[in-house]
Write a structure and sequence with these properties.
8-stranded parallel beta sheet; 11 helices; alpha/beta; TIM Barrel
Length: 350
């Protein structure tokens, strides 16, 4: 299993800046023009990829509007809607995929999608997508995972709600079906998620358990959680994205706006750059700062034979004299020559 690979022309791995995915989802609000504007805004913000979701209401659920098929959870953003009507509102028409992908390509932005059934995979293959994403709610759909893995394309799987045993089954299925480039995204499947319920310490544990690239699908507000995940090894960051939360839409509440996406790109790269390696002592960049340490200096004019005291020796900046740790050893010694105030104290003058 490769721990460094390419999606399109972009590299994914610890030796490369975080791979940032802007998830459009249903934030196009059923307007192709708006969808294309979202692509343009994602590219301008510096994202690596734009991601869609490929399904229809009929491939997701049944045309039933009561009972199990009606959302009554008071904590849900979508309370009061049937599953069928929600997906009817949120889906991206399949005929929009190509113009969206074409616009992304024109702007140097990768574009791919999350398929929710096998017909969606066949459709996306006809568009030659560079990668696939499996959503958290489908991460136990072994048949779908096998279908996607068999394409040989890089596969990104969100891990929301999944136990270790379920993830093990899904990862095994993907690898056995031909997946060599796998990314697992730590995900909390609440919308929005809270930082307290995100548990980003799971990120390095996922990498250790499954020996693959890891990242985060972040449903929290802001960029702090994603930055924290990068410091723990996340090589991929996915965030929902919209032009303006005020415009509404099925996922707008927990989506980033353009300025926030730009901040995510900048701050996650800074976090990645800061990791470096375990190191102590002055770095190359700090060498010039060593002179600003405190050291021992003669603070009064002295004549040959004068004794060093706390009145004529001080620990001050700059750092060209002896280290301050020698002060007690030097006090009481005499100087071997005349010494002017402001002279760095060295062994040669005592």
């Amino acid at each position: 299993m490769d721990l460094e690979f390419q999606i399109g022309e972009r590299w994914v791995g610890h030796d490369h800046k975080p791979f940032i995915i802007a998830e459009m989802s249903g934030n196009h609000n059923q307007s192709l023009e708006r969808a294309l504007q979202i692509v343009e805004a994602a590219a301008a913000a510096g994202a690596d990829a734009i991601k869609l979701q490929t399904y229809t209401a009929d491939t997701m659920t049944l045309d039933i509007h009561e009972g199990d098929f009606f959302i009554e959870d008071t904590n849900s953003l979508w309370k009061g809607s049937s599953l069928y009507n929600l997906y009817l509102e949120a889906y991206t028409p399949w005929e929009w995929h190509k113009p969206i992908f074409d616009r992304a390509a024109e702007l140097g932005l990768l574009a791919f999608s999350t398929p929710f059934d096998e017909t969606a995979v066949d459709f996306l293959e006809s568009l030659d997508v560079p990668a696939y994403k499996i959503a958290s709610f489908e991460n136990t759909d072994i048949q779908l995972i096998r279908k996607v893995a068999a394409t040989g394309k890089p596969l990104i799987i969100s891990t929301g709600m999944a136990s270790i045993a379920e993830l093990d089954e899904s990862v095994r299925a993907a690898r056995e079906a031909g997946c060599n480039h796998l990314v697992l995204l730590k995900c909390t499947s609440t919308y929005p998620a809270t930082p307290e319920n995100t548990n980003v310490l799971t990120v390095p544990h996922l990498e250790e358990l499954f020996g693959c690239m890891v990242g985060i699908s972040d449903h929290t507000m802001g960029v702090g959680v994603s930055v924290a995940a990068v410091t723990l090894g996340a090589a991929v960051v996915e965030k929902h994205f919209t032009l303006s939360r005020a415009d509404g839409g099925v996922d707008s509440t927990f989506s980033l706006e353009p300025e926030e996406l730009a901040a995510l790109v900048i701050e996650t790269e800074r976090a990645w750059q800061s990791l470096g390696k375990v190191t102590y002592g002055a770095t190359e960049g700090e060498q010039a700062s060593l002179k600003h340490r405190r050291s021992l200096y003669i603070s009064k004019d002295l004549k040959q034979g004068d004794a060093l005291t706390r009145e004529n020796v001080k620990a001050i900046r700059p750092g060209f004299g002896l280290p301050t740790k020698y002060l007690d050893e030097l006090l009481g010694r005499t100087v071997t020559c005349d010494v002017a105030k402001g002279t760095p104290l060295t062994w040669e003058v005592v």
